[in-house]
Amino acid sequence: MVRLLGPQDRLLSTIEKSYPEVTVLVRGNHVTIEGPEAEVRAAERLVQELVAMVKNGVDLGETDVTAGARILERGEGSPAEVLSQAILTSRGKSIRPKTLGQKAYVDAIDHNTIVFGIGPAGTGKTYLAMAKAVQALQRKEVERIILSRPAIEAGERLGFLPGTLNDKIDPYLRPLYDALNEMMDPELVPKLLAAGTVEVAPLAYMRGRTLNNAFVVLDEAQNTTPEQMKMFLTRLGFGTRMVVTGDITQVDLPIGASGLQVVSKILNEMDDIHFARLTSEDVVRHSLVGKIVDRYTAYDAQQQARRYQREQSQGDVNPDGANRAERRGHGPQDRKQPGPEKPRRRR
What we know:
About 45% of the residues lie in helices and about 15% in strands. It contains 13 helices and ten strands. The strands form three sheets. A six-stranded parallel β-sheet has the order 7-6-8-9-5-10. Strands 1-2 form a two-stranded antiparallel sheet. A two-stranded antiparallel sheet has the order 3-4. Strand 1 (about 25) and strand 2 (about 30-35) form a beta hairpin. Helix 3 crosses helix 4 (about 60-75). It is globular, with a radius of gyration of 27 Å.
């Protein structure tokens, strides 16, 4: 019952937030639900699913409750079956998909050679990809893990970094090291890195390589150029799987288009390549993160609409491709012919 209700009955409050017209009362091991019949039946089924998840060994969180309620509302199956699939267990912690979108993302990695995980911050794109990579290595499905990332700062230039080459690139690759240490024995990670079983490398050093029998993860792919993305994807060798993750709303490239945006148009609907698009509903960080993502998405849509309207009113863009003078019935004005060249004065 303690695991079902959560610390300070937080999960109980989350259930009541999911069904505002329902009141949930707990006395010992008995749960009483009061309210309109339809809401009570929905809340009852959710509680039953949460009990089944607890029996399966799942440590419930607020995201599990909200995701379970959403799955039941949409009729997309049983939350206990969808959200109880553990990818990896490390130091007593189970790593698993916590939303339906994450579950589809993980399933896509199992069934496709190349998977693109596109979505906002906090949706578990990189974390779940790293978990699948460690799982594949432990099952001996691959011989090594290769983790890559473009070395680009987020909105500012830090200038020259002292030290060796590893010292210079480590700050950019720190999130990947953190995930490795969380999913594997921290004492084992340095040995795997030294042996080359796990390799962490910047994207710039991928040119000319062929990656066989490996699980390759490219993180922060929105900061790749189209040329870099093409170069990376063509490193694919036999027995290798690739996962490319990124958030196309947070591009730090100084100029030019993002390779992640371009590749979704070029490779869309190809066999054995899957584009998993996660949304704010798949955010598993603080509940505010999902709301922040929604606000920024709405703001970007408004700005884009205003920009389009401004261009329309100025005559820069119109469906027929004509400028304002042509729409008024006048042809473009002839350029003024240059007059005779004046003689230069001699000194």
